[in-house]
Write a structure and sequence with these properties.
Layout: E1 6-9, E2 14-17, H1 54-63, H2 72-95, H3 111-132
Antiparallel strand pairs: 1-2
Length: 133
């Protein structure tokens, strides 16, 4: 439900909509007037028009950056690391190396991708232990 917040500016002579952006820290709504035809003020992206050319749109779609520091490849690496940890935790509990509670929450979606990698590592460790004996 989008509410149309009207406000008066210039001493009550101009009627406009209020910016719909909220602060992350205080959860308070911005008190500036929204840009004409938009829901937010210029500080919160009301002046942004996005990429116009097909090349610019393609670059934007490929980059998928958040604050310029996070890329798709970085996200995939983090998901793989999370899946590896989940598989190692599962294996540790199954083999009796670990006791206690397990990590709460959903299991990573890439666990099936990582499990063959873990099987290969476990096979190598078992072979090394057999050679030492």
């Amino acid at each position: 439900m989008s509410k149309n917040f009207e406000m008066l500016t210039a001493g009550g002579r101009i009627r406009c909509t209020q910016c719909q952006a909220t602060a992350k820290s205080t959860r308070l709504q911005c008190r500036r007037p929204a840009t004409k035809g938009k829901r937010v003020c210029k500080l919160h992206g009301g002046h942004s028009t996005g990429p116009k050319t097909p090349g610019g749109r393609q670059r934007c779609a490929e980059a998928r950056l958040v604050h310029g520091q996070e890329t798709t490849s970085m996200r995939k690496e983090r998901r793989l690391a999370s899946a590896r940890l989940a598989v190692l935790e599962m294996a540790g509990h199954a083999l009796g190396f670990m006791q206690g509670g397990r990590t709460r929450g959903r299991k990573p979606a890439l666990m099936g991708e990582v499990e063959p990698e873990l099987n290969h590592v476990v096979r190598d460790v078992m072979l090394r232990q057999a050679v030492k004996r």
